[in-house]
Amino acid sequence: MTDVMADRSAVGPDPEVTPGAASGPRPAPPTQRQARRRGQLAAWAFLAPFMVSFVLFVIWPLVHGVFLSLTDQSLTGSGGSFIGLQNYSEALSDAVMWRSIGNTVWFTVLTTVPLVLIALIMALLVNTGLPGQWLWRLSFFMPFLLASTVISQIWVWIFNPEIGAANEILSAVGLEPIAWLQTANVDLISIAIATIWWTVGFNFLLYLAALQNIPTLQYEAAAVDGAGPWRQLFSITLPQLGPVTGVILILQMLASLKLFDQAYQMMNGNSSESSRPIVQYIFEAGFVGYRFGYASAISYIFFVLIVLVGIAQMIVLRRRKEDS
Question: Span 269-298, mean pLDDT?
Fold first, then answer.
């Protein structure tokens, strides 16, 4: 034992081992610029699939549609010659196109106001604490989950002039039955009624969420000051719902202006001049009349009108917000 210790003392103390010394010198940490560049590359890597899809399915169709609107391209593959603004000139003088735009605007008026008021009333009723709230919420929102084909078929049967429930209700109150989907100027109202029943649940859900975010302290303070339910409604609830109402108006107007599915399905593709929306007229011009170029021109005229309506609505809402 003594000999071993003597040998070790002769050799000298063990060399100090530094952790990581065997792996060589450490690499220098990345600079702030390099770290930022790596973060940007990672961000672009995540965004690349979306950007490629956006360019392929949004930007390119928009650009190609503008080009088609300046040609006499046909669905059959013939044509394609550059004709300038002839399609736009023809569309602006097309009485059927303007009648279709008028039908779409009238449908938007018929649906937007009721969809705001009915959804607000439904949300207020549920928010008051009615028993069985889950059932009310489910029944109000369930139609929105159904497909347009299902909704159309349901209301075609309801509006059936012979056995439909709509005429049964009219007969019960002493009114004459109506051929709802076969009578001019009534068919579009029928489509509007079906659309209101179908989509009011989404607006109801938005209003209900906004109502539940209003602090209860405001109502308690108003009650202490002697404000009744109606005073609280007009002084607290409705002002607090102003931003949500603006969002609902914008979403509803854009959705109503794109009317096609339920109108085409309920009318079995044979819409009259009083019920044909502009999107259906674009479809008929392109896929029935085989005039792709002309249909593209109509779609871009309608697109410009939608943009103008959106800008006007944003200006009005901004001014109201500034005034308040």
Answer: 90
3-state secondary structure 250-300: HHHHHHHHCCCHHHHHHCCCCCCCCCCCHHHHHHHHHHHCCEHHHHHHHHH
- The two structure tokens encoding residue 83: 């004709």
Both tokens assigned to 225: 């000051």
CA gap 268, 192 in Å, rounded: 16
Distance CA 161, CA 178 (A): 6
Q: What is the pLDDT of residue 299?
A: 94
Whether the Cβ atoms of residue 256 and residue 78 lie closer than 8 Å to each other = no
Q: Are 83 and 71 in contact (CB under 8 A)?
A: yes
Cβ contact 297:73 at 8 Å: no
- What token pair was written down for 142? 């369930």
User: What distance separates the 2 farthest-apart alpha carbons in the chain?
Assistant: 124
How much is the pLDDT for 75?
A: 82
Are the CB atoms for 97 and 281 separated by under 8 Å? yes
pTM as predicted: 0.80
**Cross-strand bridge partners of residue 291:** 74
